[in-house]
Amino acid sequence: MNARIEDYALIGDEQTAALVGRDGSIDWLCLPRFDSGACFARLLGNEDNGHWRIAPKGADTCTRRAYRPDTLVLDTEWETAEGTVRVTDLMPQRDRAPDVVRIVEGVSGRVTVHSTLRLRFDYGSVIPWMRRSDGHRVAVAGPDSVWLRTEPHVDMWGEDFGTHAEFTVAEGERIAFVLTWHPSHEPRPPLVDPYQALSTSVRDWRRWTSRCRYDGPYRDAVVRSLITLKALTYAPTGGIVAAATTSLPEELGGVRNWDYRYCWLRDSTLTLGALLSAGYHKEAEAWRDWLVRAVAGDPADLQIMYGLAGERRLPEWELPWLPGFAESAPVRVGNGAVDQLQLDVYGEVMDSLWVARGAGLPTKPHMWAIQRTLMTFLQSAWRQPDEGLWEVRGGRRDFVHSKVMVWVAADRAVRTLERHPELKGDLPGWRAMRAEVHREVCEKGYDSRRRTFTQYYGSRELDAALLLIPRVGFLPPDDPRVTGTVDAIRADLGRGGFVRRYDTDAVGVDGMPGGEGAFLACSFWLADALHMTGRTDEARDLFERLVGLTNDVGLLAEEYDPELGRQVGNYPQAFSHIALVNTALTLSGGEGAG
Q1: What is the CATH number of the domain that holds 130?
Q2: Where are the annotated coiled coils located (predicted)?
């Protein structure tokens, strides 16, 4: 497969999402949820693993494509010798069942169009039984049933374990394809009107984006990032998945291929900050409520990630029948990092709830009780080594970022009690803990000879997460230890003008072979740090180069490979788009998270 990660656009209905290639093929779609088995898995394999392509007969990649302004409705156009044709793709907000609507429209001339649908349930491994019913093509296998119809009717036929259609559209003519999923033991859900769905989707998205109160530079990139974040939201619960995909490699041909279709606590504060600052209080409240539900329970059992509804069991396993994107195996489902200890998440939870309270989001009766319980646990547990923010698989260490976030937890707890003396808590104990953690980090996590904080106590390695030290308030931006750390990270972890998370070649730390690209969120953090330390011109230059990495429809993956000039990692990545929004807010004088 020759497609690049950035060749894909996203459509979705806030419960799942599909990736549409420049060739008009939907190569990834999980139904009915983000974390369900894929029925189109060509993204991680080949055509026999499932896809749905609609394009002019004999044509390759499109001539142009774009989202309709301020929406998640995608228009893809091909100019051919016979004329021009447009395919409009969307997933309307669902009532009961998920639908994919694809409307083919003649723009000029008369163009022959071919549709090829290959459904393969359970990540490309199960070929369904196909039949005809009441003008539909119906695919059934186990728990899954998919209905395909056209308006007006187009003849279809079966060939090579696929469903095909061929037709001609003239200028002004439209033919709509509608694919609908439902549990196979239930009756077919009500039919959606594809043309009404298009009109409603455009209207609803534009109504939503009109609420954005950011009006600074690069507003189009900010709005597109916010739309992407909204599209990665699981509407029934308010949870936001890290990405729509699993196993897109951090290095082409490598093994760093993880499942990101879950909700990470590490994203919580930055997500809240982006939503609140852009004016989306309802979405911020839904995310905060998901967070409170997810972390409720024994604080010793706090996880770094949860399922869309707060599920805790996310076992990791491999799909050997899929070769992986660009032969990057293994393909994984689930994420074994769910069982890791990462002390920083306690700080992220406490910081998120501090930000939410300060923004005036309605408090929950049990919210402070949960926070108090988390702090009681952290008072006795904070000295433990952990796996750190980046979920390394090389063993636990005293990661400096983790300890800094422990300080954040204590600081936010203290400040909450100082601002709200009616609340109960161990104010003297938390103050003492805050001071002790700060003192230890400055003594054990700082290399005075190199004038930089280090990745973990006693190490010489660096960690891009340390760029957050001034943002979370651990030290002021003009502290020499902060400026020294920013300079050291820029020099040692820089790659092609961007920033890696850490040195993957460091012996024993990472626990995985191979390397990875520059981490885009960390590169945005560098821009933030440069601005905070008085180097705003350099910060703006870096921000502009980062925005320039977005693809033709404004999307970013997790990482970027400067040598290959390609995006790598899962896609589109919420963390990258959250960081873009927060950096834009920071540079325009707004308040980001933290």
Answers
A1: 2.70.98.40
A2: none
Give the residue from 233, 327, 355 showing the smallest Cα distance to 45. Answer: 327
Answer yes or no: is 468 within a domain: yes
Q: What are the φ/ψ torsions at residue 476 (nearest 5 degrees)?
A: -70, 155
Sort strands 51-56 and 25-30 into parallel, antiparallel or unpaired.
antiparallel
CA–CA separation, 387 and 502 (whole Å): 14
- Residue that is written with structure tokens 């900050």 in the block: 273
305: Cβ contacts below 8 Å, ≥ 6 apart: 242, 262, 263, 264, 265, 314, 335, 337, 338
Q: pLDDT for 96-131, tens place per residue?
A: 899 999 999 999 999 999 999 999 999 999 999 999
Phi, psi for 248 (deg, rounded to 5): -70, 125
Q: Give the mean model confidence (pLDDT) for residues 168-178.
A: 98
Same domain, 373 and 324: yes
Q: Is 11 helix (H, G, I), strand (E, B) or coil?
A: strand
Q: What is the mean pLDDT of residues 548-555?
A: 98
How many structural domains compose the chain?
2
| DSSP calls for 269-285 | HHHHHHHHHHT-HHHHH
Containing domain of residue 87, as a range? 5-198
Q: Please answer whether residues 183 and 143 qualify as being in contact, where contact means their C-beta atoms are separated by less than 8 angstroms.
A: yes
Single-letter code of the amino acid located at 566: R
Average pLDDT over residues 22-44: 98
Beta-bridge mates of residue 9? 20
- Is residue 594 a part of any domain in this protein? no
Q: Is the pLDDT of residue 352 over 80?
A: yes
Q: Is residue 207 domain-resident?
A: no
Please list, residue by residue across 17-49, b when 16 or more beta carbons sit within 10 angstroms of its beta carbon and e when fewer do: bbbbbbbbbbbbbbbebbbbbbbbbbbbbebbb
Domain termination residue (choose one: 138, 170, 198)? 198
Any bridge partners for residue 539, and if so which?
none
- Both 153 and 267 in one domain: the answer is no
Same domain? 137 vs 262: no
- 525 alpha-carbon distance from chain centroid: 17
Same domain, 158 and 264: no
The token pair at 553 is: 């429809």
What b/e string do you get for 115-145 counting C-beta neighbours within 10 Å, with b at 16 or more? Answer: bbbbbbbbbbbebbebeeeeebbbbbbeebb
CATH number at 400 reads 1.50.10.10
Beta bridge partners of 165: 115, 156
Regarding whether 261 and 378 lie in a shared domain, the answer is yes
Residue that terminates a domain, selected from 198, 227, 257: 198
Residue 48 lies in a domain: yes
Question: What pLDDT score was predicted for residue 297?
Answer: 86
Are 471 and 349 in a shared domain? yes
292 and 151 in a common domain: no
What residue has token string 């700080």?
347
**CB contact at 8 A, 438 and 474:** yes
172 by Cβ neighbours in 10 Å (0-12 / 13-18 / 19+) ranks as exposed
pLDDT in tens, 481-526: 999 999 999 999 999 999 999 998 876 777 788 889 999 999 999 9
Q: What would you report as the CA-atom Rg of the chain, rounded to the nearest whole angstrom?
A: 25
CB atoms within 10 A of CB 14: 17
Close Cβ partners of 428 (under 8 Å, ≥ 6 residues apart): none
pLDDT for 1:
47
pLDDT tens profile 286-343: 999 999 999 988 888 899 999 999 999 999 999 999 999 999 999 999 999 999 999 9
